């Protein structure tokens, strides 16, 4: 096998398994030996790719969590249509159960932010920056929606973006602890009502 291809394959295996174990046990309760044993890799092979456990975790966030969150919640916002249905659709898809959504990345991100807060500010800041990018893009598309006449002029776009993010993370957490699909339905219906409340009322001649 080509050396570069083999290196990429090893990196992918390490990141995928690491994400699974770090989320299941928590970063600080995870021993690297457990991950390496499961993958039949030596410590020498690990340190060939990563400088430390912290470097390893950051690579996982960059290669898996960040990309997935961006794909689900940021990239769909690149539209010039009415932003409210676009935002709603992206959130609905991001709340799909784990099997169809690969892994609940949004929920994992929230979990990791909680774990690293006050314990490792560098990593916590890096994780929060992923949410910050989503927030910046939400504010931008909401402001454009106001200019284009889709969203009422009185709406506080920064406040609306904060509410959307907080409600999504809260629902992601609830869904991770429950198999009740009614929870998601109820949440989406309430989000629709909120969007309806901030939508510009167009006068029909």
Please characterize this protein's 3D structure.
- The protein has 205 residues and is mainly α.
- The protein contains nine helices and no strands.
- It starts with a helix and ends in a 7-residue tail after the last helix.
What brief labels describe this structure?
single chain; about 200 residues; mainly alpha; elongated
Low-confidence stretches: none
Indicate the overall shape.
Answer: elongated
Helix content: over 70%
Radius of gyration: 20 Å
| Mean pLDDT value | 87
Write the element-wise H/E pattern from the N-terminal end onward.
Answer: HHHHHHHHH
Strand proportion: under 5%
* Biggest sheet record: none
Give the class from helix and strand content and strand pairing.
mainly alpha
> Helix tally?
9
| Count of beta strands | 0
| Span of the ends, CA to CA | 69 Å
Give a quick precis of the structure.
The chain has 205 residues and is an all-alpha fold.
What secondary-structure arrangement, pairings included, does this model have?
Elements: H1 3-25, H2 32-39, H3 43-49, H4 53-74, H5 83-94, H6 105-116, H7 121-147, H8 157-176, H9 181-198
Helix pairs in contact: 1-4, 4-6, 4-7, 6-7, 7-8, 8-9
């Amino acid at each position: 096998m080509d050396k570069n291809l083999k290196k990429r394959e090893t990196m992918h295996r390490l990141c995928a398994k690491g994400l699974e174990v770090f989320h299941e046990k928590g970063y600080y309760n995870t021993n690297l030996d457990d991950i390496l044993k499961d993958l039949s890799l030596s410590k020498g092979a690990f340190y060939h790719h990563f400088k430390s456990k912290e470097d390893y975790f950051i690579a996982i966030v960059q290669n898996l969590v960040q990309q997935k969150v961006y794909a689900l919640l940021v990239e769909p916002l690149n539209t010039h249509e009415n932003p409210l249905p676009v935002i709603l659709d992206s959130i609905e898809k991001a709340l799909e159960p784990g099997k169809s959504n690969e892994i609940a990345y949004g929920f994992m991100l929230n979990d990791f932010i909680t774990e690293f807060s006050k314990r490792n500010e560098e990593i916590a800041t890096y994780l929060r920056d992923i949410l910050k990018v989503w927030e910046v893009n939400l504010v931008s598309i909401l402001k454009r929606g106001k200019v284009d006449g889709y969203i009422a002029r009185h709406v506080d776009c920064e406040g609306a973006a904060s509410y959307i993010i907080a409600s999504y993370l809260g629902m992601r957490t609830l869904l991770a602890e429950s198999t009740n699909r009614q929870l998601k339905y109820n949440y989406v219906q309430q989000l629709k009502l909120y969007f309806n409340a901030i939508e510009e009322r167009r006068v029909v001649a």
